[in-house]
Amino acid sequence: MKICVVGLGNIGFNLFTYLCQRFPGEVIGVDVNERRVNELLNQGYKVTADYLELTEIDVWLMAPSTGSQGQNLFSALEQMIINPGSLISIESTLPPGTMMRIRDFLAEKGFALGEDLFLIHVPHRVMFGVDKTVCDTPRVMGAFTRACQEKGRQFYAPLVPLLVEVSDVRVAELSKVVENVKRYLDVAFAQEIYGYCVDQGMDYNSLKTAVNSKNNVELLGTDWGIGGECLPKDMSFLRTVCSSALLDGAEQADQDYRDRIVRQVGSGKDVLVRGLSYKTGVKDLKHSRGVDLVRALEAAENSVWVQDPLFTPVELSEAGFNAIDELEVDQREQEQDQIAPKIILDRHNALDIKIVTAIESFEEIS
Ligand SMILES: NC(=O)c1ccc[n+]([C@@H]2O[C@H](COP(=O)([O-])OP(=O)(O)OC[C@H]3O[C@@H](n4cnc5c(N)ncnc54)[C@H](O)[C@@H]3O)[C@@H](O)[C@H]2O)c1
């Protein structure tokens, strides 16, 4: 078997390395980003940026970034040399309706699905920072024909803990988007209730503990806003096909929450922002609402310092931030240093601003 992973980003690269262990010598990766490919070649991986090198592929696992209309997938499909009898699995998250466009695209190329080509959709749903490998989570699989479904089952059933097969490929497509939008709504709701608690002088964390003592309820924690790449993107995928006041409201609620953090700080202050990665426990600054917050505070003419347990101050400085390390902050607070940050923002209590007074202690305000 010759397997090719298309797109070597967060998902694709982790999938690629996992499969290299499962199928030694049978896996190759492709990415259009030549810098990324050279970096991986230098590390000894079998990858390429040239689709023409990819001949006789039996299984294509496609995990490129999607593009707002799925354009990256179509661009990849256009370049792939597709062998009769091969399996193409779309693992990227798709705007609803994309699988039907892919089916039509392949039909125009002369392929008959379930006869000379097998197409399935198995949206990826790894939770970085939680799952140990990219194949730890049950997966949903949909296809247009029974033969495609059967071929997909042969490949995925031994790889994943549970394969949830759906008979309508649109269900597979929508399942991934809905999964993320549901999370989005839950976070937006948490932000609203947290804001209400702050207004009323109530402790949100004790409310959360009280609510979550019932086993079918989960009130989530809050962060700098709803960030990362997937949740906002998948919300926009759903909103393009589903008109809903609830979805509109959730997006507005998140925007209001983020604006409130900046408004509460005001301008002309020295501020320390604690926690910058796009989510707790994952060392990645891309699509981080923490980064957006820092830039918004700077635009409001504050002097902003940052700190994140996952990054060294040098790494943060190189990424373009004024970094300060934890020990230094403690020391400056104790010494009442004039340049110590005066306002401290923590990612999970972003509306509970801590002010470092000129004297010595923290004063909580809302
Ligand atoms: N990151 C996550 O936590 C996560 C979780 C589940 C699903 N997904 C979905 O998986 C897909 C990939 O996400 P990601 O986080 O790995 O993205 P990413 O931006 O980290 O990586 C995508 C890679 O695809 C490459 N690419 C783009 N067009 C290409 C093409 N035509 N041919 C080959 N390579 C191409 C890019 O150069 C990039 O290296 C997206 O659809 C995303 O929504 C992501």
Strand and helix layout:
Blueprint: E1 3-6, H1 10-22, E2 27-30, H2 34-42, E3 47-48, E4 59-62, H3 71-79, E5 86-90, H4 98-108, E6 117-121, E7 139-143, H5 146-156, E8 163-166, H6 169-200, H7 204-211, H8 230-241, H9 245-265, E9 270-274, H10 289-299, E10 303-307, H11 313-318, H12 326-335, E11 343-346, E12 354-356, E13 362-364
Parallel strand pairs: 1-2, 1-4, 2-3, 4-5, 5-6, 7-8, 9-10, 9-11
Antiparallel strand pairs: 6-7, 11-12, 12-13
Helix pairs in contact: 6-8, 6-9, 9-10
The structure holds nicotinamide-adenine-dinucleotide (NAD).
The site of nicotinamide-adenine-dinucleotide has 27 residues, from α1 and α3.
Structure described in brief:
This protein has 366 residues and is an alpha/beta fold. The chain contains 12 helices and 13 strands.
What descriptive keywords fit this protein?
366 residues; alpha/beta; Rossmann fold; 12 helices; 13 strands; disordered C terminus; binds nicotinamide-adenine-dinucleotide
Structural commentary:
- There is one protein chain.
- The protein has 366 residues and is an alpha/beta fold.
- It has a domain at 3-167: NAD(P)-binding Rossmann-like Domain (Rossmann fold).
- The chain is 42% helix and 14% strand.
- The chain has twelve helices and 13 strands.
- The chain has helices at 10-22, 34-42, 71-79, 98-108, 146-156, 169-200, 204-211, 230-241, 245-265, 289-299, 313-318, 326-335, and strands spanning 3-6, 27-30, 47-48, 59-62, 86-90, 117-121, 139-143, 163-166, 270-274, 303-307, 343-346, 354-356, 362-364.
- The strands form two sheets. The protein has an eight-stranded mixed sheet, sandwiched between helices. It has a five-stranded mixed sheet with strand order 10-9-11-12-13, covered by helices on one side.
- Strand 4, helix 3 (71-79) and strand 5 (86-90) form a beta-alpha-beta unit.
- Helix 6 (169-200) crosses helix 8 (230-241), helix 6 (169-200) packs across helix 9 and helix 9 (245-265) crosses helix 10.
- It starts with a strand and ends with a strand.
- Residues 358-366 have low confidence and may be disordered.
- It binds nicotinamide-adenine-dinucleotide.
